[in-house]
Write a structure and sequence with these properties.
about 350 residues, alpha/beta, 3-stranded antiparallel β-sheet, binds iron/sulfur cluster
Length: about 350
């Protein structure tokens, strides 16, 4: 099976106060050194597995010089056999223009993931984002004009002050644009971020309200032909993220760059979040798990997907799982058909505790 390749681009124009992803300030010079480090690690990678997805995530990959994205892609093409790839690049509005988008297209990038988050300017301001709703609209239209057909947008749920109406507006505005895929994440207060303060915590909506918003979003998105295929991901037919599906299906992926994670040759590992060391020398990988994906992990990740799990893959556990699922089915949280078992949208909201019970 082909692997996915993930490149972590750890630069942001401004740190968003809710975000705990690894990123640093950007300068052209540091970005050049960073790209050299990525190319060094790609060239030194000990194997040459065939890859069919490439994902530039961050951080803000669209912030760095586009020619660096091109250089990194060239080194990937040179090193790995590449088979009809999906090549995704994360883009933040305010960091691209038509010229940059055309260059990405020429380089082979064929999917954009745009950090829209909301189309309500007050909500964007509260999130500390540098763009407004109009910039998002223009970015999406310019991307479509540059030839991108596969555009995804991030949409945030549970923003302080967000109402059912403003959420609906965001969904309708994004779905009116040439957007094929929406990732909808619930805002959480992460440890050691500026959002971890009393003023913001007091403004956070309560869990019941957020659950209602989530179920409402699922319903509207489904009505607009964005089919839910994972807890937080919705796509028009044929536009599921092939790269991200690898994570949930326990397929292999190889990550490059500080803070990048990998699952390769049965080993899960990551690199330290340390850009300045990464630029100087190859980082030592940190092995987080050296056993192939076990049954519990495959159940845990598989139940994140709307397709659920195939019980034929777990013959020894099948009866136990089904006995545990009975109560959840009665409560409308799970559905079993033939040999398949999956969570309903209501079940997705309680996925952690349901999965813990199923694999106990
Ligand atoms: S732009 Fe994205 S990665 Fe960068 S700080 Fe904001 S949310 Fe985090």
């Amino acid at each position: 099976m082909s692997v996915g390749i993930y490149i972590h681009v750890p630069f942001c124009a401004k740190k968003c106060p809710y975000c705990d992803f690894y990123s640093c300030g950007y300068s052209r010079r540091i970005a050049e050194d960073y790209a050299d480090g990525i190319i060094r690690d790609i060239e030194n990678f000990p194997d040459k597995p065939t890859a069919d997805t490439i994902y530039f995530g961050g951080g803000t990959p669209s912030l760095i010089q586009s020619e660096l994205i091109g250089k990194i892609l060239q080194s990937i093409y040179k090193k790995f056999p590449i088979n009809s790839p999906e090549i995704t690049l994360e883009v933040n509005p305010c960091t691209v223009d038509k010229n940059k988008l055309l260059l990405y297209k020429q380089m082979g990038v064929n999917r954009l993931s745009i950090g829209a988050q909301s189309t309500n300017d007050d909500e964007l301001k509260l999130l500390g984002r540098i763009h407004d709703s109009e910039t998002t609209r223009k970015t999406i239209l310019t991307a479509a004009d540059a030839g991108f057909d596969n555009i995804s947008c991030d949409l945030m749920l549970g923003i302080p002050g967000q109402t059912v109406e403003s959420l609906e507006n965001s969904i309708y505005k994004l779905s009116d644009l040439p957007v094929r895929h929406i990732s909808s994440y619930i805002l959480k207060i992460e440890k050691d971020t500026p959002f971890e303060n009393e003023k913001i915590i007091k403004q956070m909506p309560d869990d019941d309200f957020v659950s209602d918003m989530y179920l409402h979003a699922v319903k509207i998105l489904n009505n607009l032909s964005f089919e839910q295929y994972e807890i937080s991901n919705f796509a028009q037919k044929g536009y599921d993220s092939r790269h991200n599906l690898k994570y949930w299906r326990c397929n292999e992926y190889v990550g490059f760059g500080p803070a990048a994670h990998s699952f390769y040759n049965g080993q899960r590992y990551c690199y330290p979040s340390d850009l300045s060391s990464f630029i100087k020398y190859p980082l030592e990988k940190i092995i987080t798990d050296s056993s192939p994906a076990d049954e519990n992990e495959r159940i845990m990740l598989g139940l994140r997907l709307s397709e659920g799990i195939d019980l034929k893959d777990f013959p020894d556990k099948k009866n136990y799982i089904l006995s545990k699922a009975v109560a959840f089915e009665k409560a409308g949280l799970m559905i079993s058909t033939a040999d398949k078992l999956r969570l309903t949208p209501e079940g997705f909201l309680l996925s952690n505790s349901i999965i813990a019970e199923i694999i106990a």
